[in-house]
């Protein structure tokens, strides 16, 4: 007795469907393993360029204590800015920075995730508790910029902002020599 033609076609279809189901399930399982491994690995090792820091000791020791916050001129003429975000303020609240100068921002958060944005520029970063965020930028034009927190951080989020005043390099150096520390607040 021979098997009817339609039955042989159905068996071939079922076999092909089973094969594709096995391939699909294997692909899904592989992707889940990759996601789990990556999640565990990145939680243990942050991406390069991000430094871990203990948020419970920020105010007590290290580079983010009060006297170190603000603007400092390095030996090579570049500028470094250290800032601390915490609900619901940036410290310092106002910075004076030179135009046409490489400026490195180093910031962190004392409590929750905060956003750091200098309006009208390419300066945009996240300040995450437990990590130091570092980026370098240059302001090409003099003027004033708002620096709002762009990551919802609680009920006072809407009032969390600071100012940046970009001035000529000559004005900046004159103000820095007058011991303002690059702060305008």
Structure in words:
The chain is an alpha+beta fold and 185 residues long. It folds into two domains: 1-45; 55-177, Cupredoxins -  blue copper proteins (Immunoglobulin-like, Sandwich), CATH 2.60.40. The protein is 26% helix and 32% strand. The chain is built from two helices and eleven strands; from the N terminus they run αβββββββββββα. Strands 1, 2, 3, 4, 6 and 9 form a six-stranded mixed sheet that branches. Strands 5-11-10 form a three-stranded mixed sheet. Strand 7 (114-117) and strand 8 form a beta hairpin. The radius of gyration is 27 Å and the shape is elongated.
Summarize the model shown:
With about 180 residues, this protein is α+β, with helices and mostly antiparallel strands. It is built from two helices and eleven strands. It folds into two domains: about 1-45; about 55-175, Sandwich (Immunoglobulin-like), CATH 2.60.40.
Descriptive key words:
185 residues, alpha+beta, Immunoglobulin-like, 2 domains, six-stranded mixed sheet, three-stranded mixed sheet, 2 helices, 11 strands, 26% helix
Task: Give the secondary structure arrangement, pairings included.
Layout: H1 5-44, E1 51-52, E2 70-73, E3 79-86, E4 89-91, E5 94-98, E6 102-109, E7 114-117, E8 124-127, E9 131-138, E10 143-148, E11 161-167, H2 169-177
Parallel strand pairs: 3-6, 5-11
Antiparallel strand pairs: 1-9, 2-3, 3-4, 6-9, 7-8, 10-11
End-to-end separation: 97 Å
Low-confidence stretches: none
Highest CATH level, the class of the largest domain: Mainly Beta
Shape category? elongated
């Amino acid at each position: 007795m021979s098997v009817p033609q339609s039955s042989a076609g159905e068996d071939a279809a079922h076999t092909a469907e089973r094969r594709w189901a096995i391939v699909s399930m294997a692909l899904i399982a592989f992707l889940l393993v990759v996601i789990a491994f990556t999640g565990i690995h990145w939680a243990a090792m942050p991406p390069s360029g991000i430094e871990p820091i203990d948020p419970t000791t920020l105010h007590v020791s290290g580079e983010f204590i009060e006297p170190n916050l603000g603007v400092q001129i390095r030996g090579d003429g570049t500028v470094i800015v250290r800032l601390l975000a915490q609900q619901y303020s940036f410290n310092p609240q106002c910075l004076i920075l030179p135009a046409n100068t490489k400026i490195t921002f180093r910031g962190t958060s004392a409590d929750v995730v905060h956003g750091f944005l200098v309006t009208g520029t390419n300066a945009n970063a996240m300040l995450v508790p437990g990590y130091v965020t570092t980026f370098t930028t240059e302001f090409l034009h003099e003027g004033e910029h708002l620096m709002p927190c762009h990551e919802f951080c609680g009920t006072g989020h809407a009032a969390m902002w600071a100012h940046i005043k970009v001035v000529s390099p000559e004005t900046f150096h004159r103000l820095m020599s007058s011991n303002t520390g690059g702060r305008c607040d």
